[in-house]
Every structure is written in C-alpha cells, then in structure tokens.
Write a structure and sequence with these properties.
nucleotide-binding, cell cycle, 3 domains, ATP-binding, UDP-N-acetylmuramoylalanine--D-glutamate ligase, globular, alpha/beta, UDP-N-acetylmuramoyl-L-alanine:D-glutamate ligase, Protein-Tyrosine Phosphatase, Chain A, Rossmann fold, Mur_ligase_cen
C-alpha cells in the first residue's frame, strides 16, 4: 500500500461505490464521513453502522464535506451536482472510488471499459484468471466495488475490473496494467452536455496514466476508437483485436467460432468452439484472451475457461419458453447499440419490450432491423412518448405499458408460437425499477407467472 496525504475523507453517495470507499477508508484508519442527499438503503446503512462510519442522509453538511482532505464522488452523482461544484470551487480534489482504491494496492489490474460488452468481457476475463489459478478480485462497476475488494488485498494476486465512464471521470493516476476499451457508441449523453466528444474523452481516460510497460487493448474495427486514438497521448503498448483484419500483434477472427491470438515473444494460440455466440461476443472473447495471454495464463486453462463460461445474467439471457415462445432477458441493454446487437442476433419474429429513462437516444440506427424483424413493440416506462413517436407506423402493433407485469402479459398476448419476446430496453431503468438487475429479475418473475 502507498502512503497518501489523505487523513480525512468525505464521500458523496452511499451506493456500492461510496459505501465501499467508506469501508476501505475505515479499514485504513482514516477519518471517514459519508453524505447522501437521498435515503441510504438499508443494505448499505447497516454496513456503515456495523463499521461505525459516520454518515448522513437526506442532506449534505457542506462544512463537514469541505473539511476533508479529499472528496470521493460516487459514479451516480453528476459533476453538475451543487455539492460537487462547491467542493471544486473550494479547491478540494474530487476523485472516484476507483482512483482512491488504486492508491492502496500494487497488484496487477485489468480494467475494462466501453459502451457495450464490458460486463461480459470483465466476467469472462475474471473467469479465465480464476481457471488459470490466479486469485482474482472481480468487481468495480459489477459486483463488489474495487475499494471493498482492496480491503482484502492480501487475498488477491490480481484484479479484473469493469470501469464505467462515470468512474473514469474521477480518475487521474489510475493506471491498469491492461486497459481494455471494447468500443464507443453514443451513450449517457445527458451526463456529457449531449456532446459525443465529451463521452469519448471520458472512455479514453482509462489509458491516460498508463506507462510504456503497460498494455492498451482496443477494437481495430470500431470506427470511433480508431478515429479518436491519435487525439490522445497513449504511452502504453497498443494491441488490437479484429474480426476484419489480421494485426501483426493481437487477436483476429478466423470464422464465427474460431479466433487466433498472437502476442510478441509468445506462442500463437487458436481458440475454437467458444460458447458465446455472435460477433459482438467474439470481440469480447478476443479482448479477454489477450489479457489472459499478457498475464501468461496457460493456453489449456484459457481454452478450458472458454469452453465452460456460461455468460452474464441480464445479457441475452434465456428466461423461459411458454407456449413455444422464447423469452429473452436483455435488461442490461441500456443503450441503442446494445439493442442493435440483440435484434441482430435473433432471426425469428420479435416482440420487443423497450423503454425507461431515455438518455438522449437516437433510435434511427434501429429502424432497418425493427422493420425487418420486429412484429410488435411493447413500451415500458413512466413516459413512453419518445418511443411511441419514433416507432408508431413502423410495426403492426405498438403498446403503451407502465409496469413489468403489464408489459410481459401484453407481449405474450402479441406473440405467436415460434416468436421471441425480447426485453432489450435501450434506456436506463430508474423510472420504474431500482436498477437494470431489478428490471431483469422482475421480467423473469412475470414470465414464470404466465
């Protein structure tokens, strides 16, 4: 662990990230104060009380926050929040929990970001590392926070982390040994002044502090990544993956279920028959394989991990078959590009459940697939007006629903034997649900009730 100048920390937001930072701070013997403008859920409140951490809810005590040496901002708190602005005006350093936790470990880190595929790539990479005998802490934007993992730093030999743009916005010295950028498509533009360039810059922060002896893994087929790479100073060794070209070093797809990994000074590896289907999952698999090879995990262990990896919950997850109708839970698809993957991967007629909190979406990219494959759309949200305006007249039936029970029953009534009911919302979940997991779990529950 490193010595830092921090003796007193203030944390804004009491979700997984903020609570993890508080617990790590307490573990390190720091003076910890946590503040949340809303109500702290009992799950996290009990953790804070058990650790005897001072916290407040329903308000921000600015004097106490500004008395800290550093302010740690949870990813759900926007930079425009008044309390964040006041901290910055007062000259306080505002960092993310990822940045904070990284100060207290020297273990190798694989960090994965991107608009789509980061959860699958993180889960798969972690699975390969564990299969390869590496004691691995897997978390970040999924599962446990990085900070809470670091409390048990002695138990781990490496970390595999999913890192969101919101977390990267508060990173300055975070330098993962392997940084993976899966792709960049418009998302979360409501948090970036509706400027795509701001969101792109946020994603590239994953490599900003990397050194020459570290690795930056990227998709050579992603036009945004390739176009913007020259605009950023990238010191790390660049290793691409591609389904279209064979790079000198990196990974490339030979056919749908086979790819090759070439790393300098290492034996070439061929991966066949990996479980995850679709080109998007081939990309995820190639990125994970590069990280595993860089970490010198044995080939047979990597191949074994690919053969038994079951995929990620809420990502194109089969939720049941009722009356010959397949129900697919893709609740994690919170942006247009994720839905594009989902619609493109299903060859049968689709009843599509979509909606939630729109993040400034442009749905035009979906039009061809919707016209070709979607027989009905079930809108699910408090306000479905944008979806209704966008797609009315494009499909035979479009329905307006305001609960998961109503959406599932409506979709079932519109589907026929051989069809697929696809929950792939393209939107955030916070209007009707706690998060995308809650939305996906409710979908699976109501499917079981049919």
């Amino acid at each position: 662990m490193r010595d830092t100048e921090f003796k007193k920390i203030a944390i804004i937001g009491a979700g997984e990230s903020g609570t993890g930072a508080a617990l790590l701070g307490k573990h390190l013997g720091l003076d910890v104060y946590l503040s949340d403008a809303g109500k702290v859920s009992e799950k996290y409140a009990s953790k804070l009380r058990n650790a005897q951490i001072d916290f407040e809810e329903g308000r921000h005590d600015l004097d106490r926050i500004l008395a800290a040496d550093v302010v740690i901002k949870s990813p759900g708190v926007p930079d425009k929040a008044p309390v964040v602005k006041k901290a910055l005006v007062a000259g306080k350093k505002v960092i993310s929990e990822i940045e904070f936790a990284s100060l207290y470990t020297h273990k190798p880190i694989v960090a994965i970001t991107g608009t789509n595929g980061k959860t699958t790539t993180t889960s798969l990479t972690g699975h390969i590392f564990l299969k390869g005998g590496v004691k691995t802490g897997i978390g970040g934007n999924i599962g446990k926070s990085f900070a809470e993992l670091v409390i048990d730093d002695h138990l781990y030999e490496a970390y595999v982390l999913e890192v969101s743009s919101f977390q990267l916005d508060g990173c300055y010295t975070f330098a993962p040994d392997v940084a993976i950028l899966t792709n960049i498509t418009p998302d979360h533009l409501d948090r970036y002044d509706y400027k795509f360039e701001n969101y792109i810059a946020s994603k590239f922060r994953i490599t900003q502090a990397q050194r020459e002896d570290q690795v930056f893994v990227y998709c050579a087929d992603d036009p945004v990544t390739v176009t913007y790479m020259p605009k950023f100073l990238i010191r790390a060794r660049k290793i691409p993956f591609s389904a279209q070209v064979e790079p000198e070093e990196g990974a490339y797809l030979v056919k749908e279920i086979e790819f090759i990994v070439k790393i300098k000074n290492m034996e070439t590896m061929v991966i066949k028959e990996f479980k995850l289907k679709g080109t998007h999952n081939a990309y995820n698999s190639m990125a994970a394989a590069i990280a595993a090879r860089i970490h010198e995990i044995r080939q047979e262990k990597i191949k074994e991990a690919f053969s038994d990896f079951e995929g990620v919950e809420h990502r194109l997850e089969h939720a049941g078959t009722i009356g010959g109708i397949d129900f697919i839970n893709d609740s994690k698809a919170t942006n247009v590009n994720s839905v594009l993957y989902a619609l493109g991967s299903i060859k049968r007629p689709i009843v599509w459940i979509a909606g939630g909190v729109d993040k400034g979406n442009d749905y035009s990219a979906l039009h061809p697939l919707v016209k070709e494959r979607v027989k009905a759309i079930v809108c699910l949200g408090k306000d479905n007006s944008k979806l209704l305006d966008e797609f009315t007249g494009m499909v035979n039936v479009i329905a307006d629903t305001h609960s998961m029970e109503q959406a599932v029953k409506t979709a079932y009534s519109l589907a026929s034997k051989g069809d697929v009911v696809l929950l792939s919302p393209a939107c955030a979940s916070f209007d009707l649900f706690e998060n995308y997991e809650d939305r996906g779990n409710q979908f699976k529950y109501w499917v079981r009730q049919l």
